[in-house]
Amino acid sequence: MKRENIIASYRSVTSPIKKKATNDYYLLILKFLMGKREFKYTLNKSHLKAIFALCLFIFSAHSLAAQNRWWVAIDDGTDKYWDDNANWSTTQYGNGGASAPTANNLIAIFTSASTVDAKLRNNINKINKLKLLNGYSGNINLNGYHLASSQGPMINDGNVLVTAGSFFQTWGWLYINSGGAVTASGDGSRIKLGHNLSINGGTLTAPSGGSNRFILRGGFNLYGGGVFNHNNGTVTMSTRWRGTPGAAIRIDAGPGTGRNFYNLYKSGNKHATLSTNDIEVENDITIIGVGSIRAQSNNISVGGDWTLNSWKNFDAGTGKVIFNGSSAQTISWLTNNTRKFKHLQISNSDVSLAKNTGISGTLTIDSNATLDINGKNLTASTLVNNGNLQLSGSETVSISTKDTDSGTITYDGTATGLAYGNTYFNLALNSTGTMTLDADLDVNGSLMISDGTLNTGNNDINVAGNWTNSDSFISGTGKVTFDGTSNIVTGGTGDSNDFYDVTLGGTSAAQSTNAIAIDNNFEITSSGTWYTNCLAMTVSGNTTTGSGSIATTLSPTVAFSPANSATGVLVGSNLTLTFNTAIRNTNDSALTDSNVDSLITLKTTNSSGSDIAFDATIDSDKKIITINPDSDFSSLQAVYVAIGNTVENSCGTALSAASATFTSADTAGPTITWSPANSATGVAVDSNVTLTFNEAVRNIDDSALTDSNIDSLITLKATNSSGSDIAFDATIDSDKEVITINPTSDFSSEQVIYVAIGATVEDSSGNANTASSITFTAIDSITPTLTLSPVNSSTNVAIDSNITITFTEAIRNTDNSILTDSNIDNLITLKTTNSSGSNIAFDATIDSDKKIITINPDSDFSSEQVIYIAIGTTVEDDANNAISASSGTFTAREIGVSDTTAPTITFSPADLATSIAKDSNITLTFSEAIRNTDNSEITNSNVGSLVTLKATNSSGNDIAFNASIDSAKSVITINPSSDFSSEQVIYIAIGATVEDLYDNVITASSISFTAIDSISPTLAFDPIDLENPVPVTDNITITFNEAIRNIDDSTLTSTNVDSLISLKDTDENGTDIDFNATIDSNKKIITINPDSSLSSEQTVYVAIGATLEDDSNNAITASSITFVAADSTAPNLDFTPADSATGIAVNSDITIAFDEVIRNTDDSALTDSNVDTLITLKTTNSSGSDIAFDAVIDNSKQLITIAPSSDFSSEQVIYVAIGATVEDASDNAISASSITFTAADSTAPTVAFVPPDASNCVPISSNVSLTFNEAVRNPDDSAITDSNVGNLITLEYTSDSSPVAFTATIDSDKKIITINPDSDFVSGEVVNVAIESVEDSSNNTMSATSGTFCVVDSTAPVLTFSPANSSTMVAEDADITLTFNEEIRLINDSALNNTNVDSLITLKETDANGNDIAFDATIDSDNKVITVDLVSDLSSNQIVYVAIGATVEDSYNNAITADSATFTTGDSLPPTVEIEAVITASIATDSDITFTFSEKIRLVNDNEADNTNVGSLITLKDTGANGADIPFSATINAAKTIITINPTSNFSSQQIVYAEVPGNTFEDYSDNLVPQTIKTFTAEYLKTSLSNPLNEKDVIGLIEAQIESAKRMIVHSTKPVLRRMEFLRRHNDQNNLSNQGVKLRFVNSSVTEMSHALNLSSLVNQTSDLFGNDWAIWSEGSVTIGETDENTFSSIKKIKSNGITLGIDKIVDTNQIYGVAIRMEDDESDIGSSGSKLDTDSLSLSLYGTFPFSEKTYIDGTFGVGKLSTDLTRIHESGTLTGKRKGEQIFSSVLYGAEFNNDITLSPYGRIDAGYTKLKSYSDSGKVASINYNEQKIKTARASIGLLIDDEIQTQKATFMPNARIEYGKDIVNASDAVLSYVVYPNTDYTFRIDREETDNFRIGFGTDVLVDGGWILSADFERNQEENSSYENSINLGASFQPNSTTEYSFSVIGGSSSNKQFGIDFDKSMTDDWTLNASLESAQSSNSGYNNTVEFSTRMSF
Asked: Is 0.70 topped by the overall pTM?
């Protein structure tokens, strides 16, 4: 069963598979196609499409190598031009003359083959690719021309010079690697990249200038080590792809020199993303279009202006934008909406906003930096201000967390309010108006009034720092409190300087410069001191000092800089002494530069140190003394500076003497200690070299030293600085003090080593080291060498020769003792023949130099004797280098003895050998030493003449070679000068030209052999590399010169060729292109058919790897090409003016610009004479009148200019069009296009008066408006504003020309002037209104004009109710007023009074139909205000209706209209709350409980209720108020009426939940408390939360347990019957027909099989003589306990099974028996740990029999039926579910066996078992999660064949019964899928897939039983069970049985095995009376993978 194949199929839903499916869908489709049964899916049309798409998607593409052109120009001192064919070759080192790469199918390659500069002298518009490879050191000089490549240039070395006027372009990537450079210079140089820029170690110097000079269509990638010199130019990113990596801005090392932009200009609608690090733009950043820069978490530093088109242009992410320029910077957005940064940092002193700006995070203003918001609104979450935020005061400043602990807020506008608020650190006023406080002001730092007036508005001011008034301060009655340490500059005394009240609440305050006047009281509330500093202090009121004091002077103090104990002070620093007050000499004389020196002491170390010469000055304020030492301090010098009590303040208080010491900076470079030391000798050859610095060091660019960069600092050479480099690897320790140099290989013996480091590191103070070097000498490590004489292999050595061993240097014993003649013999071995020969006696001596050992044999050698001489590793030189053991042999010869046998030859390679490596040497090995036949010696110089080496045969061409002969003159080695050709036949021969030393000449010999095939197949692509254009529908072919196959030698077919091809867009990193590939029958041509046509001008990359070979295993070389598909895109065009443009000058030309060259559609050229016919120019639209024009086209054929013959009319609509009449060079015609635009206005404005001229009866309260038909301005082009519009207007009465006072305004559109008279007109007068001359924006002037109208009062009085209509929250005791805008009277013209006014008023509840409300009304003396006084207060939330009829009028008889109002009194009732719970399935975490309030609520402290605080105010508990808290989260809606709580985890089903709103936590906005409200409810499990039941392990466990239980029932029903028949057949000669035993039942099938094999019951008693009867009854019972471990899908299963089998059978004859058996069994399985389980009852009936088939063979058979009844219990979150399931079973088994008895018994057998179970459908019940289970069928079968071998061996004391078994079995289990559905969702099925299982089993065993005298039976067995998956189990069974008497037997068994299975058993048998026998046993088993099994067995049997 494969548990992973669980599929849920929904009848009501079909899930389509899209073409672009996920990998899982493709896997599903592939497995379907492969016929895997476990994947089941209904295929529809969409699926078939997906399968087809998949087949196409898995194909690949291949390409062939491009046509290369190699630069091979010769340096002859002249310029070498690109287009000169003489400079190009088709091979790297070939001769010139190839066609120059000027076309798209050629690659230009520059290498070390020629490093001459290349120069352009015409445009190279498109080559395929440019490669400057390693070793090319020249320049490619564009020389003012255009160089373009379709693929990305690769610049590894050399430099591309983009000089003035040059254009360097690529449509692909630009790769600039280490050693390479692209350098732009001069005016007009341009670079344009169609893809990404990659600078990886190289350098790019960008063009200077504007946004079109360096265009980048992809990403900007600057990897580590790369350099980008911006050259004050602009990088224009017009990206083609969104996101990374295609449009990444990647600068690995972050900002810095060579890594910054100057101007960054982003355009287009795609995005650019900062992918790895921060960036810095040193000047402007501009983003237009709809694309954006996405900062992610990275920062952007900007040194210039920030200009964005739209808020979409910048995605701040979590990054920060830093403005750090050195001149003015502007933050500008081209649209008006507020734009937001995440974080903004101002580091420049002049940054201003041009638009409203928001910061969602932190605004940081650095020290000395200023942000001027310039009257624009500013919002921010947090302000960190260490600089200056400059406001005008009129803007809106919204900052959630303000900085009041640092920084300055400056107001420099004309506003009168404090936009920032009323709390500051430093506050500076620099405005032109009066700033009047509306609340108290708190300044935690200093307050400065530089310009303008500060008016307290009678509010108080707290200042913690200084007070400086340089303009005007109006104190009113406000109080100024100084609550810190303050210095006060009042600016003098007077109304603009004086204080009202002053309080000192801080440490001190000191007057400076001016007197102070306090118009009221002065008070000290702290223990602080007020210092007048001898200046006047006038207090007009009371003076209260409390615990403080007023002092006349501030005692002078001094602050030193550098401060006392300072370290790291620059050696060139000046010193300053800053005093807190102005000082003078103590004789009252002024301090000057000439006398201040005498006051200062400057010494080294301390007051006793040496004087340091200096010059001192004092500033004009007499507060700062500056000390300038005559020379710089020494490194780390301690400096002492002091001043005595020699100066005083202006009040005569002397300074206390003061001093300070500080330490100058470290200016000494680090020092180095070398190891080995300089000039050291005897240094170990494997030594490392260390440089130890006295302090930590770093690179001189301040970067850290690392193991990866330290190597470049070190020089390691042989001998000296001019020696050869020694390879090494260097590391530096974590303290950065020790550099360790580890040479790659050991030094040579006695080698002199030079190691050096330049002045390339520095300490943390920037002090560089001094360049340093050493040399040392390595130890002697060369072992002495020796020379034997005679030499090895010598012959003809005289038989009386001595032997010498000569050493290259003096030697000694390896114990360092001296070698002498007396001890030298022990070191030498001298034997006959070889090392195993007999010793030869000798005497040895050594010379005085200890270099030569002489061996003198005691007697002469024999003639032809072979002598063996050897010396071991027993001597050494004085450097302890022991020699290597050495030996040699030579042959002695006695004169007169002859050799008559010629030498024999052995050739290698052998004759006719094949597949010989093409670089093989050839050897001729002779059986003995040889010489020339003239007796001369054969040497390396003459041996070649003896040998013939030819191609093919003796007539072939000679093959050049070198020959040599070894020192023994027995081996000739032939080394061909070059490798053999592929499959070349080689002929080698030697004539009868050599002989042995006895003149025996060899016989001439020759051989031939064949070299291996070594040539790889070649291939050709079609189209060829760089071909352009290629039809978009073409196939691609790859043609090979010979048949090919896969490199695993398998055949290449159309089904497997796809995987070898790569077909991609652009390059190898591009997107795959779907295709289908085939190969022809000759296996030579691969055809690639793309699924769809290629895109227009698409660059296509096709490649094939080294994946194919010929039949000699020669693999092809990986190859690729690119080509460009034909242009199929029509030209784009742009009209100017643009479509719908307005205000176009009437004399404008019209242009149509194309993005590529165009021509007529008949391919003819466009000219000025024929372009007119293409253009339509009309008025209004396509149906309008023609407009005469003349059109021309530019030289580039990309711009048509239309010049109308006459100017357009004012505001004339113009229609211009061009038809589909032009095309590009690829015949792509444009679509017909047209636009309209509107000409500029040339008509003067007109004006309409309201009231119109000559109007009558105009109301006296009317305003006058002048409406123009267009915007107007003053004739001097200045704007008309509210402040100057009145100058244009005349308003007067015509009767006497008296002016009417008014205020005039003009709207923002500058079209409507509104004149608002200061008072109503006089009724009956005629009014004249006039306006001066004005003009429109086109300078069309309107003449002055005027109009008149007559006015009359016809307006009724206006009524205002208080409370206003619809008012709420009105006080219950409020009065009601009716206020008229003019005096009123009754409509009968009589006066109103307090008596008659009541009758005019209606006052009711709710509305006009409500109950009357009692009141009393009065009217004021002006007869304008009626007051309604309620007799009693109104009720809470009462609606009140008040009305007055048309009963009053004004003095002109204008009666009012009846009017009314309603209002509602305030709320005085508490809110109510409803608690509701939305109970969903499981009470899931998204289930909510809502608290709905009857009105808006807040916290009782009046704070707003929000998501952060409401949760703490709600109670949610289990069961009741005293229950456990239930965790939850809470939210409140925006209306503040609904609180929703979301429990953190699920409720339990039926859980009681207690929810409460306490009575003291919430209130309404009228302070009415919400009362305590409680609700409890019961959680329910709903069907909506049911999920796939197969996700529950217990459900899977129940399904599996039912299948396993059904299989067990069949096994348990069959096995006892089979064993019964086996028992009867085995014991047919005994008197006991009952075999009642209990067998172990294991869950683990392997253990079960083992148990069966071991026949554990074979030791059971055999009692009672029943054989004489025809019938026998038998029984067998068992108890099984087991456990199956949990897995991914199924719970753990614990199994308990017990049952009994009862049978009766009849013996027909000796070998024929039949019978019937019935089995009853109860099987229990516990599933998991939650309580799920099943209990199965089984009842089965079996018929069985054994029948003889022949004399030696038999058949056992059984057939049975059974019924199952299963009770199932399933525990679910919703509760317990139960059900009963019925089942039926049929089973049978047939065994065919035989017995052959000879000396041993052989019993072959075969057995077939089969079973079928049908589990009926059923449903469990009890809860909402009840499940329907469909009918399920289970089929099992097993076929086995085996052989049993038995024997019996008897001895005197024991009988041995050995046995062996071998068996093979095939198990098959095939169960139908388990299909489930919820009862509540019967139409949704869930399928648990159960696959057919087939398992091969092998079983082999052997063992023996031993019967011993005394009643003992011993047994030992071994068995191995092997399954097909290579798992196996070995078991060993040891047993013993003891039968003390004929009625009782005890047995014991122990079983062990390789799988950690352990088994122990005890059996007891007892024969009872009346033919009954009792059997009992206990067996225990433990398995590592199946848990445990404990089995208690019992049985009885009776004979009758």
From this structure: no
